[in-house]
Amino acid sequence: MASGSPVGGVHCAYDLDPKLALSGVARALWGGMIGPSLMRIGTSRERMVSAAGSASFPVHGIAMAGVTEASKDYAFVRERPQRSQVLACVRGSGEVLVGGRWTPCLPGTVYVTPHEVPHAYRSTGRAGWRIAWVSYARPVVRAAAPVLIASDGEPLVAAIEGLVAESRGADDAVILRSWTELLHAQVLRILRLSAGSSRLWPIWRACDDDPGRAWTLGELAAIGGVSAEHLRRLCQHELGRSPMRHLAYLRVRAACTMLALEEVDVASLAARMGYASPFAFSAAFKRIAGVPPTAYRTLLRAGKAPPL
C-alpha cells in the first residue's frame, strides 16, 4: 500500500485498493470522513524495520515494527488482515474501531488486533498522531476481536527506535537481537494485559520464567487455580493443544531465542530446557520448528528461520 524501503525514514502517501472502495464494510467504517471514493487517506512519516533488517524477527514471528508520524487526515483500514498487531498511541489523538464503534485512542492506550478480523484507525488531532506498532506474521493475539487497553507505549518506541538506529548504523547482529528481544518482551507484557481474566497467562508466564523446570500438569493447574481436567479444556479451547504440548512449544521458543543470542551447543541447550537427553530435545524441537536445532541456527543466521 505504501512505497518506500523497509528500514529507516520513509515518507508515505497511502491509497486504498480500488476493490476496497467498493466494500460495504469499508464504507460503514469510514462514513463520510474521507469521501465517497475512499481512495486518499493521508500521509505519514515512517521509521520502520522489517524482518530483512533484523534476522531475529522470525524467531518470534515479527513481520515489521515502526513508529508513524501521521498527518491529521491519516486513516487506515484492513478488512481481513493477515497479521496480528499491537499499536500504541504515543502523542496526539486518534480513534480506533472497537466493537463496531469509533473509540478514542489517546496516549497511554494500546490497540490490539487479531488475525483476519477487520480493524481500522484514524488520526483526529489537529497536530497529527504519533503511533508505535508491531505486526506479527503469526497469530500472537488471542482476543477474538480488536480491543483497546491502558498501557504505556513509550517502551515500544524506545525499542523500535533502537532497532532503527542500529540497522541504519553499525548493524551489529548481536545488538539487533537484543533490541528485538526487548521489543518482543514489551509486546508480551501488553498482550498479558489484553488477555484480561484468562487464567492461562500466569501459567505460561511461570513457564517462560523457568522453562527448564520439570513441570507437572498438577503444578500448572495449581498456578491457574483450576483442576487438571479444567486446564486441559481451557488449553484446548484457547490454544488448540494440551497443556504439556504448549509447555513443549514454550521451551522450543525459548531455545530459539537462545540460539539467536548465544553460541550454545545442543546438549547444553537440552539441559537448560529440561530435557533428559539431546536426542529427546532435538526430536521435540524438530516436531515444533520443522527442523533440528542446528539447522534452525543456520536458517536464523541466513534470515530464513520459520516463525513459530
List the helices and strands and how they pair.
Layout (H helix, E strand, L loop, with lengths): L7 E8 L2 H4 L2 H7 L9 E11 L6 H4 L1 E9 L4 E4 L5 E9 L1 E5 L2 E5 L3 E5 L5 E5 L5 E8 L10 E4 L3 H15 L4 H22 L5 H10 L7 H8 L3 H11 L4 H19 L4 H7 L5 H12 L3 H9 L7
Antiparallel strand pairs: 1-2, 2-3, 3-10, 4-9, 5-8, 5-10, 6-7, 6-9, 8-11
Helix pairs in contact: 4-5, 6-7, 9-12, 10-11
Class derived from helix and strand content:
alpha+beta
Runs with pLDDT <50, length 5+? 1-40
On the 0 to 100 scale, the average pLDDT is: 81
- Determine the oligomeric state from the structure: single chain
The biggest beta sheet reads:
7 strands, antiparallel
Beta-strand segment tally: 11
Task: State the fourth-level CATH superfamily of the largest domain.
Answer: Regulatory protein AraC
Strand order, main sheet: write it out: 1-2-3-10-5-8-11
The gyration radius over C-alpha positions equals 21 Å
Quote the beta fraction: 15-25%
Shape: globular
- The CATH topology of the largest domain is given as Jelly Rolls
Order of helices and strands: EHHEHEEEEEEEEEHHHHHHHHH
Beginning-to-end CA distance, first to last residue: 27 Å
Describe the structure.
With 308 residues, this protein is an alpha+beta fold. Helix content is 42%, strand content 24%. It has 12 helices and 11 strands. It has a 7-stranded antiparallel β-sheet. A hairpin with a 2-residue loop joins β6 (94-98) and β7. The longest helix has 22 residues, at 173-194. The protein is globular, with a radius of gyration of 21 Å. The model is unreliable at 1-40 (pLDDT under 50).
